[in-house]
Specification:
The complex is a heterodimer of chains A (about 475) and B (about 450).
Chain A: H1 9-19, E1 26-42, E2 45-63, E3 66-72, H2 77-93, E4 111-113, H3 126-142, E5 147-165, E6 170-188, E7 191-201, H4 207-210, H5 213-228, E8 231-232, E9 234-242, H6 248-256, H7 261-265, E10 285-287, E11 310-314, E12 317-318, H8 325-331, E13 339-340, E14 349-350, E15 354-357, H9 364-369, E16 373-386, E17 391-403, E18 406-412, E19 415-419, H10 420-425, E20 427-430, E21 435-436, E22 442-445, E23 448-451, E24 453-456, E25 459-467, E26 470-471
Parallel strand pairs in A: 4-6, 8-18, 9-16, 9-26, 15-24
Antiparallel strand pairs in A: 1-2, 1-5, 2-3, 5-6, 6-7, 9-25, 10-11, 10-15, 11-12, 13-14, 16-17, 17-18, 17-19, 19-25, 20-25, 21-24, 22-23
Chain B: H1 5-27, E1 32-48, E2 51-69, E3 72-78, H2 83-97, H3 133-149, E4 154-173, E5 178-195, E6 201-210, H4 219-231, E7 242-248, H5 250-263, H6 266-270, E8 291-293, E9 316-320, E10 323-324, H7 331-337, E11 359-361, H8 370-373, E12 377-385, E13 397-406, E14 409-420, H9 423-428, E15 430-433, E16 443-444, E17 448-456
The chains are: A alpha+beta (about 475), B alpha+beta (about 450).
Chain lengths: ~475, ~450
């Protein structure tokens, strides 16, 4: 597939008609073509280089609120027709007598273009990939003689999608994604510690004009060196200051998933049936697909809906949730623009894009000064949530002890655990320093991975459970 | 293999396609190549609140290859197997290899090291082809109904899904190896929500499945177990911070054993990214710990007669009575470590990496209850949450859910706590291993007990 005209609207009409031949209210064709290029450097040598091509169409029929789904790994008319007929079986399984009177088995109007076309990193010469990683590698090694190993990788994906909805328009979009990551290992005596860094987003290689490969190498080295001095973390309930940027992953886990409307509809979310105050009045939470260059940014969702920013929580009050077409229809709302899928092989689900907390008024230095004994959570490796109970857990890759308002010792092996609504209620200070994370976050739901972004100002939570190994007061 | 004729025909077709791709790569100047073609057919029915919610069915076909040109390696994957598109990708692979640096360790296995025959692993059930949408929906409906009817406190369903996949794949190498394989898999899973009087929700999830339709538990059993798992968590609360003996259930235990497996992979060891890298021949765990990688188990979830480079596989004891005897190695990592390869290359075609097959902690003799009957105070952990593990240092800290043990009895459900101890000390601290072992997942474990872990809670 190349370009908005790659699929003839009449061919789309034929497939939609076949998909709705046995009944159903709505059908959708999701054409996707994906090219990728990646290169990995290990100790200054190109260790692996690879490329991939993937493409096909996912066909969905909605009949009586139920979904028939099939895909074809090809754009051959015969294979796509088989998929359309397979997806159409849902209508018979739901006891439909035939085509729904209101269903229109064809598209309307011309093909619309989603977003701005961005340079494709995937088409750059692979030798440029190697040159960028060599700069990163050299900068990490130059940071300190204690850096004994560096690994770095760079991957570019060029995703092109074209969505045709029965009775609706066809819409075409290009969604490039660049991902760079680095790991540095520092050694002192027998002790070895790793540090990592990452970056990228909806960019081609021009990304490296905004963020140099050297800065990524230095960042990985810096974290590895900090961790050489890290000591065991305390265990117990303490105030926690979440640093601006990366800590947005906490919002993603602690609140974001619980506000995805499929969980709410199934009554499996701890936010099902809740309204009114769900957080401290300092908390305003937004899911924003329009962050420039953001990993989670999309001009069109994977159901052909143009999304806008979603206000989820405003000054502590629950304002909205994230809908795809199915959950929106069930709730009597217009499509929400939050339908995303890993690929044409998967049916869409309500998903986050870039999730961030609005800035507050506090000076970050004052937030730190307010803590007598606590933990400063600087960088995270990821987290998990139990959506029914709201319990979340996330792990730190860089953290510090706060003593008398100052950062003292770096900590290792810190895990933070808490309950989403309880922790949101315990937010007592919010900084004015909102920052989007540079991290290469990938969200997994029902086995489907999609890129997401997170952001956060510096935030103080009065009490979270810190899972270290050192017990305060030696209690057993 | 005792396969239906349609499977033999399909595999023969894949073998012809792979041979053509290999011939093409040789003509382009490749010194060595591995090509893998995968063909899959999958079907899944999801039911929620008694009604069919989603029916999915699809066939897939993809090719992955690794090519070595003058000691330089590249890998490509494609789902477009039309002759002209494939020719473009094969040329791209050879071109990309020029960019890689010469890697003297990128040598393929010598022809004499390749598998010529392998045992029948009983991983294909021809009757699963007849498990259609109607029957799959029915099984999911029965399982969900049993879960919802189990108790009035079960208030919502996250859905029940019955799925089956039929996969055929062919790995061919320019060294002359041709390895066909055919596998099936069926699973039935249910998730429900229990709610207590205060409105606190807990979710319970259970699945049953395996290579054969017979390995599926009756749907009512699957549903009731999911309900029990939600109910037993109601009222869960943190316990006071402290040092407790901890009993891991088979599922939670498997998570820990999987971390050990990750630290035994040749890639991690050769890069010194495993805390076990320099511990070969030493005691790394309590004498009760014996860890086995067994690719040849009949019906095993990760059974394979040959590895991703075409070497014959066999059962290996990696840790015997606490002593580290070996790592999981593909050809490249074995060369880097100057050890013999263990036929642990995963996948095949594309970049290969060592991976475990069926990897497990060997069962002990005691019943699982005996692990806590003697404890005055401890925690039975049934679920761990989060990613808190650093393979380079062994630092481990994760969220946990389970039940408090007091005076040898399971007393109240626990959630919202973290569990910490370095994996090195944790393995040395295993003081009991139970006999409740079942190879349900590729990495598996019986229940076991650790003498002490730091718990952060209330």
């Amino acid at each position: 597939m190349v370009g908005a005209s790659a699929i003839d609207p009449r061919a789309a009409d034929r497939l939609l008609a076949a998909a709705l031949a046995s009944g159903g209210e709505h059908a959708e064709l999701f054409f996707e073509h994906r090219r990728s290029l990646h290169l990995a450097l290990e100790d200054g040598r190109v260790r692996s280089v690879g490329a991939g091509v993937d493409g096909g169409v996912g066909i969905r029929v909605v009949a009586g609120g139920a979904v028939g789904f099939a895909y074809a790994e090809s754009f051959e008319p015969a294979a796509m027709l088989v998929a359309a007929r397979t997806a159409s079986r849902i209508a018979r399984a739901r006891g439909s007598a035939g085509p729904s009177p209101g269903a229109r088995g064809r598209v309307s109007g011309a093909v619309a273009e989603g977003g701005r076309v961005v340079p494709a990193g995937v088409d750059a010469p692979a030798a440029e990939f190697a040159a960028i990683l060599r700069r990163l590698d050299a900068a990490a090694r130059a940071a300190s003689p204690a850096i004994v190993r560096v690994e770095a990788s760079l991957a570019a994906v060029h995703r092109e999608i074209l969505i045709a909805v029965s009775g609706g328009p066809m819409i075409h979009d290009v969604q490039p994604l660049l991902r760079v990551s680095a790991v540095a290992v520092a050694q002192r005596g027998q002790r070895r510690e790793a540090g990592s860094s990452g970056g990228g987003g909806r960019f081609g290689l021009e990304y490296f004009a905004r963020r140099s490969p050297e800065s990524l190498g230095q960042e990985a080295a810096r974290v590895a060196l900090v961790n050489l001095d890290a000591r065991a973390a305390p265990a117990g309930n303490l105030p926690v200051v979440l640093a601006a940027g990366d800590a947005g992953i906490w919002l993603h886990e602690a609140v974001g998933h619980g506000l995805e409307a499929d969980f709410i509809r199934k009554r499996t979310s701890n936010y099902s049936g809740r309204s009114g105050v769900v957080a401290s009045a300092l908390v305003t939470l937004i899911d924003d697909p329009g962050v420039p260059g953001g990993r989670g940014s999309i001009a069109v969702d994977d159901e052909g809906v143009v999304p806008g920013p979603h206000l989820l929580i405003e000054r502590g009050i629950l304002r909205g949730s994230l809908h795809d077409r199915l959950s929106a229809a069930a709730a009597g709302l217009p499509p929400g623009g939050s339908g995303r899928r890993q690929s044409f092989r998967d049916a869409p689900l309500p998903r986050m894009t870039n999730t961030w907390m609005a800035a507050g008024d506090e000076d970050p230095a004052d937030i730190l000064r307010s803590v007598k004994l606590g933990v400063y959570a600087a960088r995270f490796s990821g987290g998990q949530v139990n959506i029914a109970a709201g319990d979340f857990v996330f792990a730190l890759t860089e953290g510090y002890l706060i003593e008398d308002g100052r950062l003292t010792a770096p900590l290792r092996g810190v895990n933070l655990i808490g309950n989403g609504p309880a922790a949101l209620a315990a937010v007592s200070m919010v900084g004015h320093d909102l920052q989007m994370s540079e991290g290469t976050w990938t969200c997994t739901k029902d086995g489907q991975n999609v890129p997401v972004g997170v952001g956060m100002p510096t935030v103080k939570i009065d009490q979270l459970t810190v899972g270290g190994t050192t017990l305060a007061g030696g209690r057993t | 293999m005792s396969l239906p004729r349609s499977s033999h025909q399909l595999l023969a077709r894949l073998a012809r396609q792979a041979a053509q791709a290999l011939a093409h790569l040789r003509a382009l100047g490749a010194d060595h190549a591995e090509v893998r073609i995968d063909h899959g057919h999958s079907l899944a029915a999801t039911v929620r609140d008694g009604a069919l919610e989603q029916l999915s069915e699809a066939q897939s076909l993809g090719l992955a290859l690794r090519v070595v040109v003058g000691g330089r390696v590249a890998a490509v994957t494609t789902s477009d197997l039309r002759a002209d598109a494939l020719a473009v990708m094969l040329a791209r692979a050879v071109e990309l290899a020029q960019l890689a640096e010469e890697d003297p360790l990128a040598e393929p296995p010598p022809p004499r090291a390749l598998a010529r025959r392998w045992p029948e692993l009983d991983v294909f059930d021809a009757s699963l082809a007849r498990l259609g949408a109607d029957r799959a929906s029915r099984l999911a409906q029965l399982a969900e109904a049993a879960a919802l009817a189990a108790d009035p406190r079960i208030v919502a369903s996250g859905g029940a899904m019955c799925s089956r996949t039929i996969n055929h794949s062919l790995l061919a190498t320019s060294g002359g190896f041709v390895g066909p394989s055919a596998t099936t898999r069926v699973a039935l899973r249910v998730q429900v929500i229990a709610e207590d009087a205060a409105g606190h929700k807990r979710s319970g999830h259970y699945w049953s499945g395996g290579r054969h339709l017979q390995s599926l538990d009756p749907p009512e059993v699957v549903g009731r177990e999911a309900a029990q798992r939600a109910l037993r968590c109601l009222g869960a609360a943190p316990i006071p911070s402290g040092v407790y003996p901890v009993v891991f259930s088979p599922e939670a235990g498997a998570g820990l054993i999987g971390l050990v497996a990750g630290c035994l992979l040749g890639d991690a060891v050769a890069r010194q990214r495993s805390y076990l890298a320099r511990r070969l021949g030493t005691r790394i765990a309590s004498p009760l710990v014996t860890l086995v990688d067994d690719p040849l188990r009949a019906r095993g979830p990760a059974s394979r007669g040959f590895d991703g480079e075409g070497r014959p596989t066999r059962r290996r004891v990696l840790v015997r009575h606490g002593e580290l005897l070996g790592f999981l190695l593909d050809t490249a990592s074995a060369h880097r470590l100057d050890l013999a390869p263990t036929a642990s290359a995963s996948g095949g075609g594309g970049l290969v990496h060592p991976s475990p097959s069926n990897f497990y902690l060997q069962a002990g003799r005691r019943g699982p209850r005996a692990l806590y009957t003697g404890l005055r105070r401890g925690l039975l952990v049934r679920t761990t949450l989060g990613l808190g593990f650093d393979p380079g240092t062994g630092h481990f800290s994760r969220g946990a859910e389970g039940v408090l043990i007091e005076d040898g009895q399971l007393t109240r459900p626990v959630a919202g706590v973290t569990l910490s101890r370095n994996l090195d000390e944790l393995l040395q601290g295993i003081d009991a291993v139970a006999n409740d072992f079942e190879l349900r997942t590729a990495v598996a474990s019986p229940s076991f007990r650790v003498d002490a872990m730091t718990i952060a809670g209330a």
